[in-house]
Fold:
Amino acid sequence: MRIITSSRAQNLAIGELSKRSGVKIETIRYYERVEMLPAPPRAANGRRVYGATDLRILAFIRRSRELGFSLEDIRALLRLGGPAKASCGEVREIAAHHLEDIRAKLDDLMKLERLLAKTVARCSGKKAPDCPVLEILDIRRPKSGRSVTS
Structure:
């Protein structure tokens, strides 16, 4: 991760922080509430004032979310010292767990793709009572002559 110089990212208002980080203002406030982002100091007028560290943390959180890491995993990475200080072994453990989750999701998606492909192939495109796609989506729908009350 490239270093953000403090001269370019000091005393940012929340709107500017949002623009630079690509994170919505409400999301920034949420990250503060759940203590993923430290509460910033306030200016004399009461507005939040952010700095380079806040920008870097937000960029780290945003990229981690883009890669599918859970908030719990990101919080653990931040507890390890954030993007600059975390031990590679501890980060590897979190990433390996995430990789297992991704592989399980891919397996589920492949099963879903096969089921949906077979179902679409059976679909005649005629009236809804005989639609196999609706049949697999609606668990209460009678299947091929069976009644709902069975």
Q: What stands out?
A: Residues 117 and 124 are 13 Å apart (CA to CA). Helices lie at 14-21, 25-33, 52-66, 71-79, 82-85, 88-122, 132-137. The chain has seven helices and no strands. The domain at 1-70 is CATH 1.10.1660.10 (Multidrug-efflux Transporter Regulator; Chain: A; Domain 2).
